[in-house]
Amino acid sequence: MRSHRLHSLRRQDVGKTVELNGWANKVRNLGKMVFVDLRDRWGITQVVLDPATIPIASQLRAEWVIAISGEVIARPTNMVRKDIATGEIEVSATTCQVISEAAELPFPIADGSKIEPSDTTRFTYRYLDLRRAKLKENIIARSTLTRLFRQEFENHDFLDIETPMLYKSTPEGAQEFIVPSRVQAGNFYALPQSPQVFKQLLMIAGFDRYYQIVKTFRDEDLRADRQPEFTQIDCEMSFVDQEQVLETIEAIVQKVLQQYLPDYQPTPFMRLTYDDAMQHYGSDKPDLRYDLRLHRLDAKDFVDGIPDALVAEEAGELVVIAARSCAEKYSRKRLDALQSLFMQAGGKRLAWCKVLADEWKTSIRGGISAATQAVLRTKLALQTGDMLFIGLGASPVLLTAMGTVRQHLAVELELTDPSQFKWAWITDFPLFERNDAGELASMHHPFTMPREQDLPLLGVQPLEAKAQAHDLVLNGVEVAGGSIRIHRPDVQAQVFTALGLSQQEIDSKFGFLLQALRYGTPPHGGIAFGFDRLVMLLTGNSSIREVIAFPKTYKGTCLMTSSPSPLAQELLAPYHIKSLVKPP
RNA sequence: GGGGACGUAGUUAAGCUGGUUAUAACGCCGGCCUGUCACGCCGGAGGCCGCGGGUUCAAAUCCCGUCGUUCCCGCCA
Questions:
Q1: Which residues is A216 bridged to in the sheet?
Q2: A396: cis peptide before it, omega within 30°?
Q3: Distances from the Cα of A56 to the Cαs of A18, A22, A64, A105, in angstroms?
């Protein structure tokens, strides 16, 4: 029986007889003596074996699972390793039993190797990748954060209630995963994109506060921060206004951060309206670790008139970003790259100026007059060595295009310190937006409550209406989103109507919700965290695959289990499905 | 759906303006080694150069297609 885990033995344990189990992280065979770094989830302990008494010692290889018994001894003084917790001792083995041999490894598990396996290799042998320190620590950190969030939600009287995985198709949102019913011929469930409607029904049922750490599913194309199945921390509260939701959630997050990050100094989350975020940062999820603010320029900023190069054919507006001390960093090539980035994002032209001591260098034909330079210097607090990026285009695309430039500049100028955490609430989102077909669509979802004062706008100027919706943004990533929900059936009906749904559609899709709202519904609202993204940021990773034990590839496949896989027609038949694709 | 990068021993890479037997490191196998911790030294094995087609006297190398991994845009109520 194992007597100790592999992180725990210290100098004061010298003389103890111990039995240790684990993986041979590293084997160093010196002929007449063999050193094995024994590893488990908790740490590493060095074992020294004498092949003269333990012949198997010279056969040991990396990643074999072994059990040894022996005596804890102090390392010779000059052999003490200060960088390892157990570095003062080692275990002199008296027995060694091989529990399980390991085949030749596709990549080294132990730290310190220069060889970094490719993604394909890592995915194929995910269980081995998970043995490596980095991924292992990410998964442990995730477990810690799960525990801390659970504790805090429980402390705030939230009830953990499960909602169905086999749900109903609601095709308004993301592409869904569908599940054929065997019993109900020709009918389908859908996997939930969110437990949205169920948590509202739980509020109607009177549970008052609900939370759930739960998988949700979206059959969309993947990204570094998107997986087809991902984990939400979903929650909902009754008898609250938006301010109370924000305060409660912020308190929970702050408490979790204090327990998770040892040096965390809690500062209140910043508050920004959607309009301010767009105007100042060109994004509804601005990264606030750096300033690089967007400023409007107009005719009065140009003493001698706006240079021809900055006058658009049609309605043109000008937005400028002043970047500090980077005039020397921007070569022609980098500027061209920025320019094409800006154009791709929908901007018309991106000009630049280098603020130099004597004469400004600029891409603007004819240059910038001394008088205008003086105005800009004051307006933007310019110093020699700064650089201006002036974007020409039409709102609102100009703002988002400049937001893209801003983000790109920050990366190039190394302003994105991953150890820094800048949180912000974004509020007052538009209730609706126009989709590609020019139709009205919910920006958040159709159960979002408009601001009280905007209710009269629903029938007349719906695009002007703002929602009681809120996103939580961390370092430029949307980590949570939610809203106050509609608790009045008449308002809900108005929103459905504004969205152009017929009475028949409303009844078939959301009839049960409208019905439920009629039986005494408390005002309620909540939020859902993208837990994978949150863990990714808090662990300093740039892909959520690094914090998910068994993620999917970019194409949504699993290289380890080879899923998804074709099903023969006879296996599909019970589900009343006929495949149009011939299995390979 | 669109655009970019990558694919060569078990692994990670070099080779790519075509030309002898495809190179290195780590790993693996054998030998030596009592204080290693990226142990060291000596020797060895290991290749459908992703796959298919084309150009050529000759293709890892050039061209076309395809598959896979990845990053971005679209998409993600």
A1: A230
A2: yes
A3: 19, 16, 12, 20
Q: Give the torsion sign (CA, A408, A409, A413, A414).
A: negative
For A558-574, the pLDDT digits (tens) are 999 989 988 888 999 99
Closest nucleotide C1' to the C-alpha of A225: B76
Please give the Cα distance from A573 to A143 (Å, whole number): 41
Cβ atoms of A504 and A313 within 8 Å: the answer is: no
DSSP secondary structure letter of residue A430: B
| Residue A194 CB neighbour total at 10 angstroms | 21
Residues 182-221 of A with CB under 7 A from strand B: 193-194, 196, 218, 220-221
- Asked whether residue A103's C-beta has any atom of DNA/RNA strand B within 7 A, the reply is no
Using the CB atom, is residue A300 less than 7 Å from strand B?
no
- Burial state string for A96-113 with b = 16 or more CB within 10 A and e = fewer than 16: beeeeeeeeeeebbbeee
A104-CA/B45-C1' distance, Å = 15
pTM of full prediction above 0.90: yes
Q: Which residues of chain A are modeled with pLDDT < 50?
A: 584
- How many other CB atoms sit within 10 Å of the CB of residue A55? 11
Q: What is the pLDDT of residue A195?
A: 95
Does the ipTM surpass 0.90?
Answer: yes
**Beta carbons within 8 Å of A468's beta carbon, 6+ residues apart:** A242, A448, A449, A450, A451, A483, A484, A525
Cα-based angle A576, A580, A583 (whole degrees, multiple of 5): 100
Is the distance from CB of A242 to CB of A468 less than 8 angstroms?
Answer: yes
Q: How many CA atoms lie within 13 A of A474 on its CB side?
A: 23
CA distance linking residue A502 with residue A505, whole number of Å? 5
Q: What is the pLDDT of residue A316?
A: 80
User: Distance between CA A28 and CA A503 in Å, rounded?
Assistant: 75
The rounded distance, in Å, linking the Cα atoms of A330 and A354 is: 9
Counted residue by residue, chain A has a size of: 584
Nucleotide B8 C1' to residue A462 CA (A)? 60
Give strand ranges (E) for A268-398. Answer: 270-273, 294-297, 317-323, 349-354, 361-362, 387-393
Give the H/E segment covering residue A570. Answer: helix A569-572
pLDDT at A583: 54
Measured CA to CA, the distance from residue A379 to residue A372 in angstroms comes to: 10
Phi, psi of A323 (to 5 degrees): -105, 130
pLDDT value for A280: 96
Q: How far apart are the first and last CA of chain A?
A: 50
